[in-house]
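Posting for a labmate who doesn't have an account.
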Amino acid sequence: MDFVLALHSHLPYVLNHGRWPHGSDWIAEGALDTYLPLLEVFRALGADGIAAPVTIGVTPVLANQLASPVFQAEMEDYFDQRLAACAEAPASLESTGDGHLRPVAEFWKERITRLRTLWRTIDGDVIGALRELEDAGRIEIMGSAATHGFLPLLGRDESIQLQLAVGFREHERLFGRAPRGCWLPECAYRPRGPWDPWPGSPRAAVRRGTDEFVADAGFGWVFVDAHLVMGGTPVGISTGGEIHTTARPETAHGRSPYRGYGVLSGGAARINALVRDPRVARQVWSRQEGYPGDGDYLEFHKLRWPGGLRLWRVTGSGIDLGAKQPYDPSRAAAQAAIHARHFAGLLGEVAAELPAKEHPVLAAPFDTELFGHWWFEGPDFLSAMFRSLAGADAIRATTASAHLDRHPPRTAVRLPEGTWGANGDYSMWIGPRTAWTWQRLWPLEETFWSIAARTIDMPARHAVLAQAARALLLAQSSDWQFIMSTGVVADYGERRFKEHCSDLERLLKGLGSDSTEEFGESAALAERLRHRDDLFPDVLAGVRRALGGSSRTPARA
């Protein structure tokens, strides 16, 4: 049996939008907690000759930030901040009668210092380090939509094309090669057919399916959730620490989640899909049912102030934060190794149940930030897991493309709409709390594409048009609705969404005007925003491609 581990790395655009808690510290925390520890693991496994063919995605909006000199400067400041917290901790702990926690503070000092050495060894170039791993044939890097826009709900076909075209080109620019796979934002899929997503929305009798747009952009495969292929209920999602657990899907129509499928929407299948495994996924991400809730692991929710160091362990289910016990790094690492062996055993059990002649594949996609950020020991778990799999005859770890190249799907399926979110539908992104965002965004899409068609061949207006395209893409990020729906810092998601919509409105006002004064105001605004929202340098190529590849659809009823 082939085993495909997929890690989906994504954060919305936060550079130049403050520091703590949802500005540059957000991405710096992701780098310190997850991206650098994973690079450390991949490098150590490579040095020991252990294959770890992870299929990792880095969304274009995240990749642009990781490649930015602004991020590199912010990361150095963040290291200084974290090491200062470690330096003051011993005396402070003694003064409060918590001297027994000093060894944990020393652990943090050693760890952060070590990771800063790695950071400087790679010259602060996380993207370059990942590119080197792919060039060496050790990992595969998949692409995605530009800002993780929720593709099935975008009101214009051109908007979907822009998200995917910019995503594809940015991947080529930053990673030096075309991506073969596409991470569908939120694993959200919509088949070809009528489009009428919400009362009062624009609608169309027929719109092309998500798979058709993905194929047109140049991608060859995606991941989908099991319930789309098999029927039944969704597995659940673990984003932002919010766990939604549902029953295991039952096989429908004789379909198995352990094979690849062609996705059939309009005519012949043009892309392939691997299916998220419904059996072992919860074992990795569920704090209630899986490994991360083990009592020996680091407690995410309890921090020491000042400094923000995490010094305690989970201790047990339902234990009050005040009763948490000190963290023991050695004990936690040993437990991660035990869990890794257990996971390898689960894979072996699945492999034993499947006929080898059918070339089964178990696909396990997760948010990358689960490993290290939400589950601190996650990178240690992955290291031990790949070491365990190195001696497993019945299981071959591989990348998504490598499996599909060896075993092209022989069956095509028509998929219903759905996501990997709560309830398996679109409700996390459009509902009573968030419908107003789409009611504001859909008219902005109409206006943007109307003005873009008139100005794309007017070089004097290109700088403003480019910044308007960036504002549109940023407003389309699925993160804003997700944040609002979870209720966690909902005001932040609302503020960011409104900010980008307002920027877009002001840019479009001058861009579409014959008034020299109004256009001048838009040009000045575009120049200011270019320094704040500095991403996608060739965004106009995506605008031009979208304008050339789609009719004006859907029409407003």
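Reply:
Got it, the structure tokens are right above this. The chain has two domains: 2-18+47-62+137-298+317-424, 435-549.
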